[in-house]
Automatic annotation (TrEMBL):
Organism listed in the record: Pseudomonas koreensis
UniProt-listed Pfam families: NUDIX, Zn_ribbon_Nudix
Transmembrane stretches, start-end: none
Keywords (A to Z) from UniProt: Hydrolase, Magnesium
SUPFAM superfamilies linked: Nudix (SSF55811)
PANTHER family, per the entry: NUDIX HYDROLASE 23, NUDIX HYDROLASE 23, CHLOROPLASTIC
GO molecular function annotations of the record: hydrolase activity
Protein name (Swiss-Prot/TrEMBL): NUDIX hydrolase
Cofactor: Mg(2+)
Family per similarity comment: Belongs to the Nudix hydrolase family.
Length: 187
């Protein structure tokens, strides 16, 4: 994780880990001016988009792991809602204009300080134009999904569950974390 060597506020070099008064966590603090360097998790927002029983996946063109397939998802920007971030990522990575149906899954990866928020969404328009982070995009029938090329186990698990649920026509909501390796189910 990035830690500055100099205080971003006063430029001083006297930074050290300590628990600020009234706080519960150790933080990097400037002993010169009292600046506190907070490090908070990043949010990644994305969508499961199904059309006629096929599921939208994007093939990554850039590191990490170019060539692998994943759900369209990416880092939320400041000033966005999670829904806006998810739809923007879908647009950038697949050229699909979509609308959100409901939240579907929230899971945390505390080791790398990331939180994934995945929505169910509906494709409104498929333009065929996508950004440089994507090599290809495709709507896959379940039997054609390249499961072994979806790198991230939690993404595989979310998509598997969704496909099962679509057959039953009832969608749950999930939360979980990467440390247990399991996405938990709640209704
Ligand atoms: Zn300072």
């Amino acid at each position: 994780m990035f830690s500055p060597s100099f205080c971003p506020k006063c430029g001083g070099p006297d930074l050290g880990q300590q628990i600020p008064p009234g706080d519960t966590h150790e933080r990097l603090m400037c002993r010169g001016c009292g600046y506190i360097h907070y490090v908070n998790p990043k949010i990644i927002a994305g969508c499961i988009i199904e059309q006629d029983g096929k599921y939208l996946l994007c093939q990554r063109a850039i590191p990490p792991r170019p060539g692998t397939w994943t759900l369209p998802a990416g880092f939320m920007e400041s000033g966005e809602t999670t829904e806006e971030a998810a739809l923007r990522e879908v647009w950038e990575e697949s050229g699909v204009r979509a609308e959100i149906l409901s939240p579907y899954s929230i899971f945390s990866v505390p080791k790398i300080s990331e939180v994934y928020i995945i929505f169910r969404a509906l494709a409104l328009e498929i333009t065929g134009q996508f950004g440089p982070e994507t090599m290809d995009y495709k709507f896959f029938a379940p039997e054609d999904i390249p499961w072994d090329k979806i790198y991230y186990p939690a993404i595989r698990q979310i998509l598997e569950r969704y496909i099962e649920e679509r057959q039953a026509g009832v969608y749950g909501m999930y939360m979980g974390n990467d440390d247990s390796g399991k996405i938990h189910f709640m209704r």
